[in-house]
Amino acid sequence: MCSPWSCYARRSRGWPPIYAWLLYTGFDRTRSWFKYGMRLFILALVCEVPYDMVTFGPDHLFDFRSQNPVFGLVVALVVMVLLDAVEDLKTGVRVTLSVLLVIIGLLWDVLLRVGQSQAILNIGSLTLGFCVIYYYLHRRENTMMLTAATLGAVSGIAPGFGVAFLHYRNGELGYRHFWTPWVFYAVYPAILLACACMAL
Fold first, then answer.
1. Closest alpha carbon to 157 in 3, 2, 10
2. CB count in 10 Å sphere of residue 163
3. How far is CA 19 from CA 64, 66, 177, in A?
4. Residue 74 contacts by C-beta under 8 Å, 6 or more apart in sequence?
5. DSSP string covering 73-107, please?
6. How far is 200 from 197, CA to CA, in rounded Å?
7. How confident is the model at residue 101 (pLDDT cuts 50, 70, 90)?
8. 34, 79, 92, 119: which has the highest count of C-beta atoms within 10 A?
9. Average pLDDT, integer, range 151-176
10. Residues 6+ apart with CB under 8 A from 24
């Protein structure tokens, strides 16, 4: 029988495409990427202790063998901001710097072991991969979705579920109240805390 966290992790493996899309959309629409990034960073810090407790056991309040997947969102956001910064450079320089930035982001995820213990796959690297696909292919819907689904398939997750949700989106804002986004910030730590309580 699986632990509460491992059961949750297995069921949520198809969601990185959606998390990455929400991150890309937030990056594309935000008025301040710095404030957006700070909110994600604070969320990552808040999630770390319950993540370590449910991943490595209730007696592990801090464990550096793996970091929670929200840090992967922070890394992906930083990479997209830097990709945007080099967008106006000459083609050769832009391509070279863009490749280097993506590689640095991937190394950052690997060295921090972002989401590493959830599966053999590094969730941070996968999130960054989806974000790069959305960043460069967002104007070519079918190519973007096919590429995202292929990345998910070769990574061993269930890509059809998350990508299908994205493909049938209508592009409209899904909430009307100013406080609704804050509810979404609270969902992940709430799930972690619930799993941590079940693991005690």
1. 10
2. 25
3. 23, 19, 21
4. 37, 40, 41, 44
5. HHHHHHHHHHHHHTTTS-HHHHHHHHHHHHHHHHH
6. 5
7. very high
8. 79
9. 63
10. 80, 131, 134, 135, 138
In this predicted model, which residue has the larger pLDDT, 105 or 194? 105
pLDDT at 49: 83
Cα separation, 69 vs 29, whole angstroms? 22
pTM reported for the whole predicted model: 0.80
DSSP 139-167: T-HHHHHHHHHHHHHHTTS-HHHHHHHHH
115 φ/ψ sector (left φ>0, alpha ψ -120 to 50, else beta): left
Phi-psi group of 82: left, alpha or beta (phi > 0 → left; psi -120 to 50 → alpha; rest → beta): alpha
Looking at the DSSP assignment, which residues form a beta bridge with residue 67? 114
| Residue 114, phi then psi, degrees to nearest 5 | -70, 115
Q: Is the pLDDT of residue 5 over 50?
A: no
